[in-house]
Amino acid sequence: MTRPVRLPTGHRWVVVDVETSGLRSSTHRVLSVAALALREDGSVERELVTLLNPGCDPGPVHIHNLTAQRLAGAPRFEEVAKDLLELLDGRTLVAHNASFDYGFLDAEVRRAGMTMPTRQRLCTLALSRRLEIDVPNHKLSTLAAHWKVRQNRAHDAYDDALVLTEVFAHSASLAESLRLPLPVVGCADRRAVYPDRVPRVESPWRNPGRLDPGVGLVQGMKLVISGSTDVPRLALAERLTDAGLDVMNSVSRQTSVVVCNDPHSSSAKVRRAVADGIPVLTERQLGKLLLHVTPGEPKAAAAPSEVQQPRPATTIAPTKPWHGRRVLIVGGSHSDSVLMRSRIVQLGAKPSVNLSAGVTDVLVLDGGELDPRMDRVSARQLPLLTAADVNSALEPAAPPERGAPLEPIRPPSQWVAPLLARGEVIDLPPQTASLTVNASWRAHTADDAFDVDVVALLLGEDGRVGCDEDFLFYNSPTSSDGTVELSCDGSSEQGVRIELAALHSDYQCVSVSAAIGGDRTFGELGPISVTVDAPDHTIASFVLDAGTTERTMHFAEIYRRAGRWRLRAVGQGYEYDLATLATEYGVTVDD
């Protein structure tokens, strides 16, 4: 550490960074690991830093610079696992996108026949979002520059861990000064499970429907494999794809045929196929049909009127009186707070859900002077506002006197991300290849925490999931092809990453929703802040605070319309639970 710090007490911290051969812990491997056990002053007490020989292709060498030759003489993971687990034992793991690093280590440890001892983890990405520091994005390199931490070798596990140690120390110190709880989550409660799946390949053919024995296989048919196979599953799937068939991972009403060698199988896939009248073939029967596959009907190209026309890369928001301000509301009834937040947005300011580093003003409603955060507000010398200040700011300015010179209209000085109202829709910039829908809410203490789970539903043209794997939740956090994934693993910060450029054409909409466990409601949780972020900047943001007795709520929709991707700020809530929400969209929920 270059500067003296004091880490938060109550935890023994270990900072971890891994470099991997890909993004999926079930199929990709850890290539290098750095684990730094810290003392209370932020200095390194113990460390384990090593390259690892994964025994496979190292993947994106252009990113991590770890070639097969460099890794050839390195130890295997199982050779260092015992020392690594001793270092992790009894400590809270800290990482940037902690669910990723933890998920990869957990998968490697399981392959080695051992168990991860880590019980809690903290994501510095979630911590940075909670603090709302003034940065364009929350990449590690951006945070390092903000905190003036020198970064020598990006994507080097050891250097990234050293940088993250300082970023964490300064971020945690700022959180303590604001009395913001740290986003520590339990690992057992949020285990990332990545089941082995067949990679999804875009099919150029329309789905002709279910198998007709008199016609045989037709290109575009959707096939699902269940149980053990004579030919290795991935090799069989590749053969089927090469024949023009669309290999899926779970059965849906669109499935053409299920392949299973066991006629007495009681697997969920076969049970559903039998219940829905979907043909079930053995691998041998399928092999005979593969000798002749009827050409399929190509998917129609977009009509000329549907081709996306060039649009401005960003949106200019009209200059508003309070543009650039971030306002925290304290006190007042639920209805009063909702009303004031809507008026704050009209003025161009963004409501804040926490007393964060980004707050510029505090609006004090009835009883707000008793809020326990007010001493921090005073210490930071933040301006105090009243409802009258907000209301008067909304009053139209008096017209100039006759003959007075007119004030010239000046264009806005910068491109800004729009603040959306509930129900508002905007077109996404056409060059947007990927984005993340990030949701956050007031950070509560451990004894008053809310069990909130952000989920994603991948919907087809009929507004329903094609199969159960199109429902992403904490125990199935990624789509089969990795284009949609739950991210940002915090106690009051969660998100959904969407690779728009690679999203399968079957998906017309990604619906981002959330559910609260137990008997608690969105009215108790309070306002939800949602930002839609490209890798380097925020595209749009909105605050949803109309919740009362709802237990589930739709936050946002990213959907296709006439060849364009659009964003809708939804904010629609329901009083039923997560299982009912999933069932409404066609997901089969086990009892």
Structure commentary:
This protein is an alpha/beta fold and 591 residues long. The protein is 23% helix and 23% strand. It has 15 helices and 25 strands. The strands form five sheets. The chain has a six-stranded mixed beta sheet, with helices on both faces. Helix 11 links the parallel strand 11 (326-330) and strand 12 (350-352). Helix 5 packs parallel to helix 7 and helix 11 (334-346) packs parallel to helix 13. 41% of the residues are buried. Mean pLDDT is 86; it is low at 190-196, 302-317 and 406-415.
Class by alpha and beta content: alpha/beta
* Average residue pLDDT: 86
**In angstroms, what separates the terminal alpha carbons?**
52 Å
Estimate the strand proportion: 15-25%
The gyration radius over C-alpha positions equals 26 Å
Number of strands: 25
Low-confidence stretches: 190-196, 302-317, 406-415
The order of strands across the largest sheet is 3-2-1-4-5-6
Shape: globular
| Assembly status | single chain
Determine the fraction of residues in helical runs and give it as a percent range: 10-25%
Most strands sheet: 6 strands, mixed
How many helical elements?
15
